[in-house]
User: Fold these one by one.
Assistant:
Number 1:
Amino acid sequence: MTQLTWHTYSQSSNRFSDIELDWLFNQGSLTERLIQLSQNAFSLEIVSETLQMLRQDEYNYLNISSLQKQWVREVILKGNDIPWVYARSIILCNKNNQSNMNALTNIGTKSLGSILFEQDCFNRSEIEVTQYPIKLLPFQQFCDNLWARRSRFYNDTYMVVVQEIFLPHFWQTIQSTK
Ligand SMILES: C=C(O[C@@H]1C=C(C(=O)O)C=C[C@H]1O)C(=O)O
């Protein structure tokens, strides 16, 4: 089983340049920033949306039993049709009615962020980072040593874990727009 070790800003900030810190630890909507960076040439491709068993580090982060499947949404965020971010989000709803769950799981290519950042309905935990194992990526995005970040969005109805892995073309774009 792949074990990931996540690090907080204070544990890891000396490993990054200022521009990497800005993108990895910014608490605002990543979607909004990518829309600006792409000058509105932003798109979102759904990789998968399934009920599935999680990784142990995900169960631990959620502090839930590792015997239950959870709803997982995986997407690629693109600028000018180029893959910039692979995101893996886990959505839990503590009120077992389907309409609440549908509100976050039935959104198609609408950005999850457009809901999570709507009207300050969610709290967000501290952002943590890790180097994401290549075998956990979709095979089209295979690349070693990519930096990933995670955080929890929560309110009295939902717990949403968002994991965002920054792909090589993203960093190349950032370097070229400096
Ligand atoms: C949390 C956000 O939502 C983004 C959109 C996602 C989606 O639509 O699945 C997943 C991760 C995020 O990069 C954000 O925009 O900050």
Number 2:
Amino acid sequence: MTRQNALRARGLHFSYDRCEVLHDVDVDLPWGTVTAIAGPNGAGKSTLVEILAGVRRPQLGSVDRPDEVALVVQRPAVPDSLPVTVREVVAMGTWSTRTPRRERPGRAARGARVDESLRLVDLADLASRPFSTLSGGQRQRAMLAQGLVRGAQVFLLDEPAAGLDAASRARTRRLLADAARDGAAVACVTHDDASIDEADLVLRLEGGRRVG
Ligand SMILES: Nc1ncnc2c1ncn2[C@@H]1O[C@H](COP(=O)(O)OP(=O)(O)OP(=O)(O)O)[C@@H](O)[C@H]1O
């Protein structure tokens, strides 16, 4: 993390077994910007995002990231058998232990933040539904709301080619642009031309190498 970049990765190499998926990839995500991560199927985009988020370790290379990173995927690791509601998943964003106890907002303020985020991602009506019953796109929006509640400094989204309708994609684009305007660094894997056109920066991967 530097004054200019929220996240900085250097020389990332990653292989599944012996199959190389990322080769010497550098990434800078500046504060206050949206970066589109583009490239053909199988280029290594999802693997890169998982490494940037810290849920996967590169065999070589380093990632400097701030404390609060939100990884927004459609299939988060919440077991379907776990009876959590949408609201509870979003409220997990208030569990930060990094803020000293006396500086943490009170219960009512936390509840208001959760309500506001649910409304922003258009899930207020589904707040008491079990999380496991949501569609992929709805789960993704719930995870985004969790990151908003947490006040994440970096948002990493893995948006598959299909799965979100046009209105939902437009809404997500707006929310991400707002998060960047508030100072966060946002990176979004996308096959969507509008997302690529509207991004401040584009990172292109092909065959596991950066080509742009
Ligand atoms: N768990 C895994 N085990 C083995 N190989 C994998 C695994 N996950 C991905 N791969 C392979 O790694 C390569 C990169 O996959 P990755 O999902 O990172 O690409 P992607 O650019 O996100 O693709 P898409 O646009 O299709 O989502 C592909 O060849 C894929 O088959």
